[in-house]
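Student:
Attend to each token:
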Amino acid sequence: MLSTQQKEIIKSTAPILEEKGTEITSRFYEMLFQNHPELLNIFNQTNQKKGRQPTALANSIVAAAYNIDQLENILPVVKQIAHKHRSLGVQPEHYPIVGEHLLLAIQDVLGEAATDDILNAWKDAYQVIADVFIEVEDNMYKEAENQIGGWSGYKPFFVDQKVQESDEITSFYLKPVDESPLPVFQPGQYIGVELTIPGDTYRHIRQYSLSDAPNKPYYRISVKRDGKGSVSNYLHDYIKEGDTFPVSAPAGDFVLDLNKNTPIVLLSGGVGLTPLTSMLNTVVKNQPEREIIFIQAARNGNVHGLKEEIVQLSNNNENVTSHIVYSEPTEADRKDGNYDKEGIISFEWLQEVLPHNEMDFYFCGPEPFMDTVYNALYQLGVSEEQIHFEFFGPAKQLEIKQNVSV
């Protein structure tokens, strides 16, 4: 337990951590990987290079500092991170290593300002926070293992089918090598995929959203080729039908609420359509009377993945409406007229296509898309309770832009 004095010290250091947070966490990762390169297996190095992981960690530390005497306030964030940790295979023994290097980074960046009292308070505070994570993750590990068809850690799956969906997106239909039944997942969840790439010292783990409904004899992931992503390129270029690799059980808290029957709007940007396609397929199967509007944004038809599947669902189900937005339509797109709007999703356009705002909104896509959609929903008067979103990779805070004109 933290003393009252320690809590006051933690809260008093929150502003300086807010100012220096990313500098501290960048230094933390630098020292961590230098001293424990084996942990490179766990962390996505692309997110490290983009600065997204240090920023996300800094935001989490600052939130913990401000809420140190009411940690229940950050429990939703803890659970979101814990889902990713469980999918990656983070274990209790990793936490002391992280804590040691976090304190070293604080001391290194703050210098003389990091007094013994401050460092000791943060050492004890880190342990309190780590214990919360360990307890939550332990429950998640047990739940994943004890469910019907569940397992612990990673187990081998094979590629039953590999289907090219567009110039950039390919789907992989995965089945367990041991032919055991697949556990049911919640639409919107993801799995962890572990790959060993020839020539690379460390294995790679990536998390990919499941893009089909649960209760199928396979898990489907639909992967976008990333010019700088060694894992996605390896999947596209080298993984073939029949190949095997380890997979972790489904995880994630960006999930569709199937206990409600309110209308749903799904807004996707690029490959952000994958968790939303799982939601769409699930609603069509389980809630055929529930109104659902699927809005897909992409550059053009050449890179638009799963388009035919979604259009067919819209054509075959009266409760489904589909809209397509292309920012850079090709001449063939213009000739065929196979999209509804050129440009980007805007507040004005949403006003035209949405019958009202009393709906639940789920959206996923690249950062600029996420900011645009969030601000458009704000202008539409949509309440926070109706808004659900997920970033691919480390989360960031979506903010309302003053005098926004989307």
